[in-house]
Amino acid sequence: MPFGKREAKVEKLIFKHFDTVKETLDLFLEVLDLYLEGNPDFVPRGREVHRAEGRADDVRREIVVHLFEGAYTPVFREDYHVLAELVDKVANKAETVIDDLVLEKPPFPKESMGPVRDLARSSVSAFGPLRKALETLYSDMGKVMTFTAEVSTAEGVVDKMEWDILERLFEMDIELAQKVLLRDTIRAIGSIADRMEDAADRMALMVVKRQF
After folding, report:
1. Which residue ranges in the chain fall short of pLDDT 70?
2. Handedness of CA 191, 196, 200, 202 (dihedral sign)
3. pLDDT tens-digit profile of 44-81?
4. Of 40, 69, 74, 201, which residue is 20 to 30 A from 5 by alpha carbon distance?
5. Per-residue three-class SS string for the chain
6. What's phi and psi for 105, nearest 5 deg?
């Protein structure tokens, strides 16, 4: 893949964007733990999630500017634009979950806390192979599909965990309104992995396009 100064700059920014999204996800897990523990520090730390997501969004905008200025050929330019948008949605979703916790403070039954923690960690874990897919996109394109498949596998595990948690939730003797509020939060946590799968699918498409 021929590279110039603009392309090299975009590559650097894309990796920076991934790193900032990872920072957002790490903070997301920390704040979720604080919330489930009943630690009031979850509110100020929740603001850190918001700031990290903002930094990720700033990097995404910088990527778009360089693409607009002519980085990559037109046929591939859209790929990098869309990839940046999809990865940014990962951070957006993590921020949304924390914002909802801060604003709505849904009461999790004690028996659901462990499974919800596990769900969040499993959802975030899909970012590992997504990052490896990015690295191989630039270094060894033949291996990209291996890591995008790992993202899809991780997302499938998260789907199953989410279903099991919701099934148990609706069997609990709690108010329906509480169940619905918790359902929405649990689905939002699981959808973080969905966003990663969307980004992985885009990378797979980028590889296919470059085979011609």
Report:
1. 1-3, 212
2. positive
3. 999 999 999 999 999 999 999 999 988 888 878 999 99
4. 201
5. CCCCHHHHHHHHHHHHHHHHHHHHHHHHHHHHHHHHHCCCCHHHHHHHHHHHHHHHHHHHHHHHHHHHCCCCCHHHHHHHHHHHHHHHHHHHHHHHHHHHHHHHCCCCCHHHHHHHHHHHHHHHHCHHHHHHHHHHHHHCHHHHHHHHHHHHHHHHHHHHHHHHHHHHHCCCCCCHHHHHHHHHHHHHHHHHHHHHHHHHHHHHHHHHHCCC
6. 50, 60
Model pLDDT, residue 142:
87
Task: Judge contact between 99 and 46, C-beta under 8 A.
Answer: yes
Specify whether the CB–CB gap between 75 and 53 falls below 8 A.
no
- What structural domains does the chain harbor? 5-209 (1.20.58.220)
Q: What is the pTM of this model?
A: 0.93
| Distant-in-sequence, close-in-space partners of 49: CB < 8 Å, separation ≥ 6 | 24, 27, 28, 31, 94, 95, 98
pLDDT given for residue 72 in this prediction: 86
What pLDDT score was predicted for residue 3? 60
Contacts of residue 201, Cβ cutoff 8 Å, sequence gap at least 6: 148
